[in-house]
Amino acid sequence: MTKLIVGLGNPGSEHEHDRHNAGFWFVDALAKQLGTRFETEKRFQGKAAKARWESEDLWLLKPDTYMNLSGQAVGALCRFHKISPEDLLVVQDELDLKPGSARLKLGGGTGGHNGLKDIQAHLGTPNYWRLRIGIGHPRDLAGDGRAIDVADYVLRKPLLAEQKLIETSIQNSLDCLPLFLKGDPQAAMLNLHSKD
Hints:
The structure is a single chain. By secondary structure, this protein is an alpha/beta fold. The protein has one domain (4-193): Rossmann fold. The chain is built from seven helices and seven strands. Strands 2-3-4-1-5-7-6 form a seven-stranded mixed β-sheet, sandwiched between helices. It starts with a strand and ends with a helix.
């Protein structure tokens, strides 16, 4: 069973609404749904929340390390609670999916995502679950040939229409999460991937 769900993002009010914080948005919504609250945990270098799911402990984590060092927080909590990579779900923003889309997968590459690169380095394996929340790519906006810097794009607030689509994909993902947590990732994937 999944024992840890990590939302990726950057700490601080100045980043709260950035596209890069879609992972934080997901775990915040999940914590609210589960009736639990995040508390600062210095030993895990982030904010952690503990909930019960089917009589098992389920940890939620928002690293305070900034995106590029997310593996420090994830590694610390996994080591302390003896959580294996296969029992980990990392929720991230995904440039290669349009807003409104979300995809669930086990393992694979990092797609240039620095948070995933650092987690993989700290865990020593790519074999953990990822929930990819689509935020779109800046090339989709620059129809006139202008280049939009990816770093600038992810560190900005989405347009209102994009935000609504991202919120829909987060809700769709939350709706499919019980299937995933009950140990049926294939059904969760089929359900989630059919929603966009």
